[in-house]
Amino acid sequence: MYNFDVERFKKMTAGALAQRENIEKCADEISKKGFKNIFFIGVGGSIAHMYPLQYILKTNSKIEAYAEIASEFMLMNHQHFGPDSVCIFTSRSGDTKETVAAAKFCKERGATTIGLVAKLGTPLANICDYVFDNFAEDDNLAESLYLQQFPLIFRLMHNNGEFPEYDRFIKELETMPELLLKAKESMEERARAFADHHKDTPYHILVGSGIMWGDTYNYAMCILEEMQWIRTKSIHAAEFFHGTLELVEEDTSVILLYTEDETRPLMDRVKNFVTKISKEVTIIDTKELELPTISKEFRKYMAIILMNTMLERISIHLERARNHPLTTRRYYRKMEY
Amino acid sequence: MYNFDVERFKKMTAGALAQRENIEKCADEISKKGFKNIFFIGVGGSIAHMYPLQYILKTNSKIEAYAEIASEFMLMNHQHFGPDSVCIFTSRSGDTKETVAAAKFCKERGATTIGLVAKLGTPLANICDYVFDNFAEDDNLAESLYLQQFPLIFRLMHNNGEFPEYDRFIKELETMPELLLKAKESMEERARAFADHHKDTPYHILVGSGIMWGDTYNYAMCILEEMQWIRTKSIHAAEFFHGTLELVEEDTSVILLYTEDETRPLMDRVKNFVTKISKEVTIIDTKELELPTISKEFRKYMAIILMNTMLERISIHLERARNHPLTTRRYYRKMEY
Asked: Which DSSP state fits B114?
């Protein structure tokens, strides 16, 4: 695979999975102590990768879960937040200004704080009650986060009497490193062709739904906009027909990030429409992957990890084809604002 | 004002406010009976105009509130929904497919259903337990909805012991028709100039926060995209710095829909940044309006109604300047999908 370090990737997946027992211990302590609700708090990619967790809870659990953007959360005087809240933060750098401030805010008010970081000793790691670290970089961060957050969230549900399949789920989760590598490989040539074909495309519409919505929003904003300076519209499949559809013409690029969950028919509806109008429809669908170690009912969860790993191939080929490094920024962290 | 029927507008505001006593009766019955949570369910503009209500509840009340897209809600098996839920739907036409199906779904499962429609006798009106009708069209629908939904939501909070200022708030709400007309007038020349200047602008970034976020999302998708076929990115002010900022260049149009609520500093931060980079920043800010009958602490709520009425002036002038009727659709309700 182009510009890909297998060993580094394996180190990331192994490192994330190695946190499992500590994460379970944390979840068990929290469940034992009792809590009122969960707050997922982050900004940009970190909140985007928590929307799926909120969706999983809403559709599987009676646990109340809020997902709030860090700097808005700090101002809004959220009436459901309190000392009995469990607050989850992630920050690769460990020093994202808004996230660090929010973690401090929550801790000072007596809430339980959990931080996922790439490195210990960083401001976020120093604040939180529970900290899990695993080295990851922009190109494999999502996988690292989900491999750690799944044991946390599903264990909390399990402890709440809602996910009896927990042990089997974890056993299957532990087979993901190999499946992720295969998914990446399966994407390689498609990603190369996509990037070559679309190197001058100035605008993409990205559509997702259900568990996949957060990652759809993320790929549009944090990769295509931030790292490639390409204009995007990310739109939920259930909302697509209430405005954005009117923009689709024969040459409009529409990227469908298919979910394997119960909202899949919403994606089918968009697909049926856009393929009638546009010749530039790209479908990325984890359903095409063989996952021999994953039960049918767990595929929809694993799909968000697989999707991120497949999308990374598109990013790296866009970097090549467009001669635009993924790390170049005009403004982010380069000027005061 | 260009292409504006004052009498028709006055009829709409009077009609919406005339529903107040019936709406309060409904709220009082619901509070007396007791309920577990509120579900705002809609699609496109109708859900967008309910996000502010969810925000108001989150920041003022212990009442649990969910805002869900109708067709996703139907599929997701939401674990907090049940017979003790109060479900609120709006549909101007009264026959939006997804909304009608969701209302039927909720009613069949024993939940309390409330519908706001422009016309009785429509499918949504025929399904719901409580129905409030007021004639409105696309250009004044948001104002009609908020003038009816505010008494509903604030009364439920009041009944929950959380909004003792209710009576005063309603007295002030009843002065809104005149203030709305003045706000519209104050916008007229700016809207004309904006439309003339931007008639060929192919892409706008729209930024909002807090109470104003839903209407920001709405104006981008349901007006600029659907009615003018102009590409947009709507982005929350707290998220702007995590991707979208990289797209801003000297000639990039950025439209800031300022809130008057506690998240205003988030908008200031975006303003400080974008005005350094782009020469095409448009600020629409209700704070500039004199509202002699509105208390300072209620301005932030009234601001979303005022913003919609001001934005309508931009829409009508875009229609003129671009010679593109707001009612023309390529696909919506014109083909099967």
From this structure: E
Q: Assess contact for B295 and B179: CB atoms under 8 A.
A: no
CB atoms A80 and B64 under 8 Å: yes
Q: How confident is the model at residue A247 (pLDDT cuts 50, 70, 90)?
A: very high
Q: Do A44 and A81 reside in the same domain of the chain?
A: yes
Same domain, B251 and B279: yes
Boundary of a domain, candidates A142, A173, A204: A173
d(CA B333, nearest CA chain A) in Å: 9
The answer to whether residue B329 is domain-embedded is: no
- DSSP H helical ranges for chain B: 6-18, 20-33, 45-48, 51-60, 70-76, 97-108, 123-127, 141-159, 166-173, 176-197, 213-218, 226-228, 264-277, 299-322
Q: Yes or no: say if A131 and A148 are a contact pair by the CB < 8 Å rule.
A: no
Whether residues B41 and B141 fall in one domain: yes
Give tens-digit pLDDT for A23-78. 999 999 999 999 999 999 999 999 999 999 999 999 999 999 999 999 999 999 99
Whether chain B has a CB inside 8 Å of the CB on A97: the answer is no
Q: Do B221 and A244 touch (CB under 8 A)?
A: yes
Residues of chain A with C-beta less than 8 angstroms from the C-beta of B327? none
Q: Taking CB atoms and an 8 Å limit, are A43 and B246 in contact across chains?
A: no
Q: Is residue B316 part of a domain?
A: yes
Domain count, chain A: 2
Nearest to B67 by CA among A54, A242, A183: A54
Q: Is the pLDDT of residue A12 over 80?
A: yes
Asked, for residue B97, whether it belongs to a domain, the answer is yes
Same domain, B218 and B128: no
Helical axes B141-159 vs B20-33, angle rounded to 10°: 40
| Domain that residue B88 falls in | 6-173
CATH number for the domain that contains residue A234: 3.40.50.10490
How many whole angstroms separate alpha carbon A210 and alpha carbon A237?
9
Pairing of strands B65-69, B85-91: unpaired
b/e map of A23-61 (b: 16 or more CB within 10 Å)? bbebbeebbeeebebbbbbbbbbbbbbbbbbbbbbbbbb
The answer to whether residues B143 and B14 touch, using CB atoms and an 8 Å cutoff, is no
Chain A positions touching B227 (Cβ under 8 A) are: 246
**Measured distance CA(A333)–CA(A325) in Å, rounded:** 16
Domain termination site, one of A115, A144, A173: A173
Residue A330 lies in a domain: no
Nearest CA in chain B to A77: B59
What confidence score (pLDDT) does residue A337 get? 77
Interchain pair B332, A226: CB under 8 A: no
Q: How do strand B281-285 and strand B253-258 relate by DSSP bridges?
A: parallel
Specify burial of residue B285 (Cβ count, 10 A radius: 0-12, 13-18, 19+). middle
Q: Is the pLDDT of residue A317 over 90?
A: yes
The answer to whether residues A161 and A257 belong to one domain is no
For each of chain B's 337 residues, which pLDDT tens digit applies? 999 999 999 999 999 999 999 999 999 999 999 999 999 999 999 999 999 999 999 999 999 999 999 999 999 999 999 999 999 999 988 898 999 999 999 999 999 999 999 999 999 999 999 999 999 999 999 999 999 999 999 999 999 999 999 999 999 999 999 999 999 999 999 999 999 999 999 999 999 999 999 999 999 999 999 999 999 999 999 999 999 999 999 999 999 999 999 999 999 999 999 999 999 999 999 999 999 999 999 999 999 999 999 999 999 999 999 999 999 989 887 887 7
Instruction: Flag if A72 and B221 touch (Cβ within 8 Å).
Output: no
